[in-house]
Fold:
Amino acid sequence: MLAMFKPKEFLSRYHFLILFILAFLIWIFAFRHFIFTPSRLINDAGSYYEQITNYLYNLSHGIYPLWNPPFEYGNPNEFFLRRIGSFNPFLFLILFLDRLGIPHFLSYNLFLVSYYFLGMVGFYLLAKNIFGQRGTAFVAFLILLFSALGTRLFDSYFLFATIPIIWFFYFFCTFSLTPQRHWCLGIVFSLMIIMTTYIPFYFVTIFLSFLVCYTFFYGHTFASILRRYVDFITANKIFVTLCIVVLFISFLPGIFLFQEASQGTFALPFRHSTLTTQNVLEVDKRLIEWWAILEDLAFSSYFLRNLREYEFAIFYIPLFAFIIFLLGLATRITKRLAFFFVWALVGFLIGIPSTVVSQFLYNHIFYFKYLRNLHFFLWMMLLPIIALMLAEQWYNFLAFTTNSKRSKRFIYGLIIIVHVLLMTYFIKQEEIISSFIVIFFSLIFFLIYFCRSVNISERILLWSILGLIVIQPLEVYGYLFKNSAFEYGYLYADPKHFRFIYIIGEDLQEEIQKIIKFAGEYRFPAGWVGQKDIYYGLPWYSFLYANINGDVFYEYKRHKIRLYDRVLSLSDRDIDVRKIEQVFRTSPNIAFVTGDYQGPEFYGDPKKFAGKCQILRGDSEEFQMVRFTANEVKFKTNFKNAKFLVYNDNFDPKWKAYLDGQPTALYRANISFKGLWIPTGEHEVDLRYGETVSYVFNYLMLVLFVFVFIMLVTACYQAKSVKNKG
Structure:
């Protein structure tokens, strides 16, 4: 077999695939410090690491985590499950890598990188469909791959929504040209991921804007496209019906979350505190206007003046892409280029709250009141479109004819002027060294290309493109690593912390204590939201957090189990914040029970109940923790006197209590937490969250997503096999 292997033939046959893989390897090299070093996720990327790790850890132990004990002392987890896209089969890659013995942080980072590369492959295939040739598609692919989009893996989360959107457009465009079952399955699967991840309204806006712009430029093609759709549906009625049913089912989790938000089941005071509307998902308009596309660009412009100061969230494309843009200004404006420009302009206007377009959408389209991060359109929509626009300019510029002396003088003069002006400007700016290297070799490349006496093959052309695009990013991303201040260190990010802790902070490492302190003290600027608003939590916990002294409240709630001999029934209308704060400060032997309380005030002689409440610091003869999971807390008790136990984990009506296997009353105690009476003697107490139907539904959703994914892969493979045989 080795004797038959011919390196030259292999390289000739697979040179494009090799080039493609090399581009990925170069990208990995540029981000090696982020990928292979622990604790390199910051801001929202760190939060997503925490939530995904929490989810997968529980799932690997046979638990679908409907409750989130770590976050703000217990919350329904559906909000976070929708943000991370809990049904996405690609998340299982992390578990697979964990099973191979790879450190968890690296498993997660490799998943991020793989998911990003998957999206870039989809973008290349989309570009290839658009331009009809792989060279131009490769340019678009490289520009997007080495743009700032990839940096957001390590500080943001919107790529979880961006990747399936890219694949949707690929499947949608391909299906519109040649309707086949596997392309239809691709549309369905992409939509399933989109509709159960973060906020699908970004996708809805991008897709609708695409349809509007496409109608304006290519409306004459609609009749033939619709005819192909009708023919496909007619020939595949059962298949299409099943696809519609599957799509409807995938919409249900988002609908349920929206209903809970309308009922006030949870609170989002960070984004909703100044509003009076019922649905807590709605965003304060001042928060929307605080940071949008223009603010993002203004922030980026400061750092782009000196790339040695480059940091996260800076809008950046490689210098060679900018050279393509300047040279492309001299080419003709094609309909395709105009379409990209108008589509990008629409997205730009949507992402600026002060424009007429954005104001109209906010006032008349209901879901725009739920979009807080309008600057995401810059990254999710505009950046990919810009890459396509630049690829179109590249194609048009290389097609420039130089048959006459006049055209040769023009093209040579243009190339020299653009490069000399850039060189002069960067010299004055004291630009990084890679910029000068790109300008020099770019000048040589274009002069040689338009010298018709020299024949440049496609292979040399593609290698030249790769080199010219990657030179500057390699240096820029090196500065990104040097300038990044990593603050990651989440309390529950390591699976070893998924256990019950009697007193939060006592047995934790020093750096984790600092993170807790940091999280407790961090406040956003006043003026557009309250200074003491949490991002997400239950309503009464949010109330306490905003009104009780932070140090007092933290010291109270970090003790997970408190025992009382007396309770005091308290109406929600009669809550005295200062009195509650004093109780939290002094810890008397009396608990408050709010809501409809029908139990006794105390058991035994009230004269013996003076002093402070009892704080449990670990297992003892009186109390032993038996089981602690996301959805269940089980413990054994052996009290000499009846006790009212307060478990400082937030109360929710979906929590049920069982005493020795029999249902018992569970109350909202001390304003926001769980409380129940436990009789004397030996007993087993079991606290469980959620209904059986909720667990069954979520597990069935997981199975459904995996099944559709397997069907998609199988259908694509079979279609390719048939094509190869044909």
